[in-house]
Amino acid sequence: MRILLAAFALAFAASAFGQADEVAHPDPRVEARLKNIGEELRCLVCQNQTIADSNASLALDLRNEIRGMIAQGRTDDEIRAYMVARYGDFVLYRPPFEATTVLLWLGPFALLGVGFVVLAVVLRRRKRIPEAPGAKSDKQRAAIAALLESDRAPPEGPRG
Amino acid sequence: MKVLKFGIPLAVFLALMGFFLVGLYRDPREVPSPLIDKPAPAFRVAQLHQPDHQFDPQEMHGKVWLLNVWASWCVSCRVEHPLLVDMSRKQLVPIVGLDYKDTREEGLRWLDRHGNPYQVSAFDADGKVGIDYGVYGVPETFVIDKQGVIRYKQIGPITQEALDKTILPLVRKLNG
Fold first, then answer.
1. Which pLDDT score, from 0 to 100, does residue B121 have?
2. H/E segment holding residue B63
3. Where are the alpha helices (DSSP H) in chain A?
4. Residues 60-89 of A with CB under 8 A from B
């Protein structure tokens, strides 16, 4: 039984070795910067995860590359440029403002503008609508007001 | 006025449909490579078959060639492999293999089993060359021209269609 258990444990140990362990940099400042940069970079293998979050082996390799670059004293911009040179703007969660991304950046504001124009047109048109048929004339209005007024007047003399 | 009232929503609707229709046929995994029309990144790594020999893309200068990134653990590499073997048999274009994040032993065994279409195989054990080439989904294939400039990148397995419609015509044009 013991041997079986040991064999079982070993089998799992072997699969755990399948992926290289990630070794954090001894300097916590390097790790902090890595986390900061990695959170703005998309992992291309699992596209909705950041390089900081992903367990994909490519993300692990890239984290190690970035660790190396930070340790060499490269700036965040240089590291981002390194990533963009290899994987394109797609790796950036905040893509740069360019001809190809104009729609992405300005589209929402353009839609908002269209919304305001539509709103203005609708409101203006509503103002111009003639009064509905059956509306009362000024004279009738005055009569109505007088009637309402007399109804609201205090009762004359004691009741009953 | 009536034309505007119906025309504008209709135009917006058709434009949206147009975007969706295009989106339907695009693979979100295919990210355009910034390396197209740029010089192929330089590297120098050991060969797979002869560890004491190295491979440098400079050796291919003056030739139109394919750099095929593969690995023994890569399942879809098996899909495209017969096409590569067929291409090398017909000597259509020299193909260089880059065995990516693999072990030498398994890479060699894989080539023995599935056939070796490569003029030479470079061995990228730690995936550093792959990073420089922006590899994120193996297999990937680069078409590199006589001046060493990357002209096309196939992400994922090469298909007969990609070969006939894109890769081989491009190779012929570059050789032209």
1. 95
2. none
3. 2-16, 28-38, 57-71, 76-87, 102-128, 138-152
4. 61-62, 65, 84-89
C-alpha–C-alpha distance, residues B83 and B98, integer Å: 17
A30 and A83 in one domain? Answer: yes
Is the ipTM higher than 0.95? The answer is: no
Domain total in chain B: 1
Residue environment code for B67-80, b if the CB has 16+ CB neighbours within 10 A, otherwise e: bbbbbbebeebeeb
Q: What is the pLDDT of residue A97?
A: 84
Question: Shortest Cα distance from B89 to chain A (angstroms)?
Answer: 33
Give the per-residue pLDDT at A157: 60
- Report the candidate in A61, A100, A66, A59 with the shortest Cα–Cα distance to residue A80: A66
- Give the per-residue pLDDT at A14: 44
Do B34 and A84 count as a contact with CB atoms less than 8 A apart?
yes
In a domain, B151, yes or no: yes
- pLDDT under 50: residue ranges of chain A: 13-18
Q: Residue length, chain B?
A: 176
pTM, whole model, 2 decimals? Answer: 0.73
Whichever domain contains B127, its CATH number is: 3.40.30.10
Based on the fold, state whether residues A126 and A59 are members of the same structural domain.
no
Q: Which residues of chain B are under the pLDDT cut of 70?
A: 1
Q: How far is A110 from chain B (nearest CA, A)?
A: 13
